Amino acid sequence: MISLTRRYRFPAAHALRRGDWSEAENERAYGKCANPRGHGHDYAVEITVSGALDPRSGRLVDPAALDAVVEEAVLRRFGHRMLNEDPLFAERVPTAEHIAVAVHALLAAPLAERAGVALRGVRVRETRNNTFDFGDVR
Amino acid sequence: MSEPVRVTRAIEFSSSLRLWRRDLDAAENRRLYGAKAERHGHNYRLEVSLRGAPDPRTGMLVDLKDVKAVLEREVMARFDHRDLNEDTDCFEKAPPTTEQLALVIFRLLDAAFPPRLLERVRVYEGPDLWVDVERESRP
After folding, report:
1. Helix residue ranges per DSSP H, A3-135
2. Residue B138: DSSP 8-state
3. What is the pLDDT of residues B88-131, one digit of tens each?
């Protein structure tokens, strides 16, 4: 099995809080991450794809096509944004776990259609010390 | 005591290359590979993962000295400070994309190590791009 992983970065803000909870409940569950004015991270996302090598190019994926899909579907959408304002997080708190699931959902179809590869997994690095994996991460 | 463990050894090598198919003309190669059709180079990082049960006598899966010697012979001597297109015969059929490089290294090492010891080869083209080749798991 051959897979390729590429790392991208986007800076974004978020606040971990639920609208249906009291201030005290949010504070208890999320601590300083519940600050209503938000805070931010330099997120890195590692996208792992797999498939057969293109016999013409000897590549798994055209890197330009991979970059274009990730740029359009994820980096432009989340980069320099307050994640709580994205409709994807209207019903879900934008924890890094949910960001990993959301990135996977945003990429699976366009990667298959426009880059011709299967998405295997997404790793979100929220800080140097904390990473969150969804799917088959390499 | 015979539970399988994984041991990973890393090395780095620097090579020059161009993505170029000999059966295509220059314009087609440049269209297919863009800037990578021109001669350039990378500092590759290779991680070699071995898997199996440790020797009950030594407590080691392998002697890392032996692993180092295999990597020196199969990888460093072939590719380090070499041109992947001109100095090796590994990329005559398919150009040295990082995918092909990882496949070639997996085959070379799989033949050099005891059967089924090699589990995975990871080749970093740079810190933000890497390719994994793993043994197909057969049920």
Report:
1. 23-30, 63-70, 76-78, 96-110
2. P
3. 999 998 999 999 999 999 999 999 999 999 999 999 999 999 99
Domains of chain A: total: 1
Domain span at A61? 3-135
CA distance A134 to B89: 39
Nearest-angstrom CA–CA distance, A47 and A107: 9
Partnered with residue A14 across adjacent β-strands are: A39
Q: Give B43-87 pLDDT, tens digit per residue.
A: 999 999 999 999 999 899 999 999 999 999 999 999 999 999 999
The token duo for B64 is 């890392």
Q: Which residues pair with A22 in a beta bridge?
A: none
- φ and ψ at residue B135, rounded to 5 degrees: -60, 135
Q: Considering only alpha carbons, which residue of chain A is nearest residue B21?
A: A57
**Residues in B touching A7 (Cβ below 8 Å):** 127-129
Interchain pair A6, B127: CB under 8 A: no
Q: Which residues of B sit within 8 Å Cβ distance of A? A: 19, 32-34, 94-95, 97-100, 102-103, 122, 127-134, 136
CATH number at residue A123: 3.30.479.10
Q: Over the stretch A85-137, which tens digit does the pLDDT of each residue have?
A: 999 999 999 999 999 999 999 999 999 999 999 999 999 999 999 999 999 98
Domains and CATH numbers, chain B: 5-134 (3.30.479.10)
Q: A5, B132: Cβ pair inside 8 Å?
A: yes
Residue of B nearest to A45 (CA): B128
Residue A127 to residue A33: CA distance in whole angstroms? 14
ipTM rounded to 2 decimals: 0.89
